[in-house]
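Budget justification note: compute hours in this period were largely spent on complex prediction jobs such as the one shown. Inputs:
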Amino acid sequence: MTTVFGVPLPAILGQLMLGLVNGSFYALLSLGLAVIFGLMGVVNFAHGAFYMLGAFAAYVGLQFLGVNYWCALILAPLAVGLLGIAVERLFLRHLYQLDPLYGLLLTFGIALIFEGILRGLFGASGKSYPVPALLRGGLNLGFMVLPIYRAWVVLASLTVCGMTWFLIERTRLGAMLRAATENARLVQAFGINVPLLVMSTYGAGVGLAALAGVLAAPVVQVSPLMGTSLVIVVFAVVVIGGMGSIVGAIVSGLVLGLIEGLTKVVYPEASNIVVFVIMAVVLVWRPTGLFGKE
Amino acid sequence: MLKPGITALCALLSLYVSAQAAAGDQIVIGDIDDLSGVYADVQGQGGIEAVYMAIADAGGTVLGKKVIVLSVDHQNKPDIGASKFREWSDQNGLNMLIGGSNTGVSIAMAKVAAVKKVPFFAIGAGGASLTGADCTAYTVHYAYDTTALGNGTASAIVKQGGKSWFFITADYAFGTQLQEAATRVVIANGGKVVGAVRAPLGTTDYSSFLLQAQTSGAQVLGLANAGTDFSNSLKGANEFGLTKTMTPAALLAFISDIHSLTLQTAQGLYLTTAWYWDLNDETRAFAKRFFAKMHREPTMTQAAYYSAALQYLNAVKAVGSTDSDLVMAHLKQAKINDMFTKNGYIRADGLMVHTMYVMQVKTPAESKYPWDYYKVIKVMSGEEADGSQPDPACSLAKK
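Corresponding output:
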């Protein structure tokens, strides 16, 4: 059997495939963070909590309201996005004139509050969300059996990432958004409602996190803490990609997922720190990140 | 602005002074546990409630002193656990400490118990070293330990033909001790371990590790982890179809885990437990009271919280004092008889030796009412679960 570093090739291929699945989650989450930071300058520490709320919205929808998985894919991000908009209007808006650190502290506090509430309601050990019937079973790839659901996650996440990139970089709405970041007052002078634009941006970024949460619900235990550890990793991904860079977030999300997957074969104990080691190296070598602007 | 500040300060000061003054006229039980993290459902608020139930059953006051409970979240950090324990002993007149989840934190707290001479009941933590290399004269390991878990689950599965094992292990003191205990049992019964992987605590995605388990060709998937780590690894094993080709072995699972996973996912699983709410009339009566307050059935360690607090207070009554050495001496010669266990006793090394049960999780069809989750596969005597001799690694055992 062919081996690489003493590990059989099929095992490597399998791990790379799984790395790609995790990378898709990272990409989707870091994309939302990058959009919010790039267009608003807010370091959104509540991103993990919104991801968790997305998963819980799907769970509550299925258990109590009869909303199936496919509807949840649309409805949960909408509901959580609206919550995000409320957070922006009520709290975040007042901090734009201040140092970004205040936004970070506020969103961190909001994350703790949401997690605390959900722990009170559902307990720390979480809930199970079934894989939708249509996506059960596995695909035999020769080197491994990939659950169909995981393949769907990669497909869905890449599609959404592509669409978001297109929206921001290639459409008129995206152009207005980017212009508003460069010079908000000038854009406002052209009669464009900048506060509305900013508010919807935050809502959309939060919606992306919630979508990732719905996608994750069938594969991990839906628990109040599911976003806590993830948000730190995703921040590292965004920093590596370059704060605010859309392409950077997507590409580094996928690549880091792959690297993490390989680490799990070679030295599993390090799998939860490898991303941070890479972040440190990147920060020394290119402080603005791989795709960041000076 | 200044006035409310001063008022608050005065209020705080008076509280502090009254706490100091009161320290002698009350009995203080402390609980240091994970109240917010991955293990918060195992004891958490339910554990505190169980202690209150024990206090009520002991009469609310003991030797004419009011019994009060202090609790704090150790956030799974050994330094927080140890420093809180020290603070309570120095400033709040702590008489007895109950330790919740996390072996790492409990080992750190055991060291404080030895210095402060405060009885320390380790309940949520499983690491057998608490009554081995890390034992102290004031530690009681009360509910279960990794040795008993290995002797229960691992031996039941090996004897049924599950000879080759692959472990997914939580990468800290508890996980490694659990894997060692299970490995000893597997090898002693003619089985072998073909591989093991150490996953960081709090890992959510286990697919890589599961793939390694699958390619190893082992018959048994040993899950040497707990809480959400356990739920996520078992959930992944189902998704990747491992449960069809391998026998999953839960080396430590609580009823809270089974409840959150649902029977659909957990059915057929073997596990070892010290207590189950539906064992007999006494356990059901306790569970009913507990359920009325917490709206869920108690875990084995929540039941042990109740039992430990009750036995401690009974010992205080019996010796007529809260003196740690007198109470410990009494505890070590008395039999423990309550709804948690019958004829339990505390060995020289501090381990509470008592009956353990190997259970199998019911299928959804077998389950007749809410929380009807386990069927008893085997009842193990305390000696069968933990051996009849104290752990030679413990200095107290040599006497």
